[in-house]
Structures are given as C-alpha cells and as structure tokens.
Amino acid sequence: MLSILYLYWHYSLGAKQVARDGLRLIFGIFNFFSISHLFRTLLYPWHQYSDQYKSGFDLGVFLWALSGNMISRGLGAIVRTITIFIGLFFSACAFAFAVFCFFLWLILPLAIPTAIILGIIIIF
Rounded to whole angstroms, how far apart are CA atoms 64 and 115? Predict the structure, then answer.
C-alpha cells in the first residue's frame, strides 16, 4: 500500500515539482543575465557615455560628438550581444539539464528493483 502511494506521489506531484524546478532554473538563469533587458537596450550607449551636441553648428564638433556616440553605441551593442549569447547558452544548458533530471526522475523508481535483481544475479 505504501509503495503504491509513493509511486502515485512520485509520478504525479513529484514529477510536477521536478518540472517546475527545472523551469525555475531556466528562467532564473534567463533573468540572471537580464536577457530581455539587454534586448531592449541593445543600441544604448555603453555605460551612458555620450557627447552632447553643442548649440550652433560646428562641423568638427558635430562629427566628434557623432563619432564618439556611434563608438559608444557600437561598443554597447557588442558587449550586450556577447552577454545575450552567453546567457542563451547557459539557458540552453539549464534546459538540457532540466530535461535530463526530469527523465531521470521518471526512471528512478526502477533503479531499486533493478539493483536487487542484478545483485541476485551477480551473487548466483
């Protein structure tokens, strides 16, 4: 009776909890790297470094500010893109780990009878 209750819990509530924990791991890594925020701010200047455009028009000052701002935005985009790819890589690894743990959880109750049978076979 107790083993039937355990198997019921293992394959219903326990499996649901393992799946929920796997999703929490994936979304936790996704949020740790702030991937959605990095996508929203992909073309923002790096650390908000930007030159202000002066009033009046001086071609040299305008081109200096424009080039500095473009370099800052390009650097920000490069660093954010690399961080996004690293975060997506670790999220994919977490997904693979969660799927592995879920399938391991499903076959885990078979390990005890299998170990007993193999032990008997090895002894005799």
Answer: 73
Distance from C-alpha of 27 to C-alpha of 57, rounded to nearest angstrom: 49
**CA 53 from centroid of its chain's CA atoms:** 39
- pLDDT for 35-84, tens place per residue? 999 999 988 888 777 767 777 787 888 888 888 888 888 999 999 999 99
**Cβ-contact 84, 30 below 8 angstroms:** no
Euclidean distance between CA atoms 123 and 3, whole angstroms: 26
* The pTM of the whole model exceeds 0.85: no
Domain residues of the chain, as ranges? 2-123
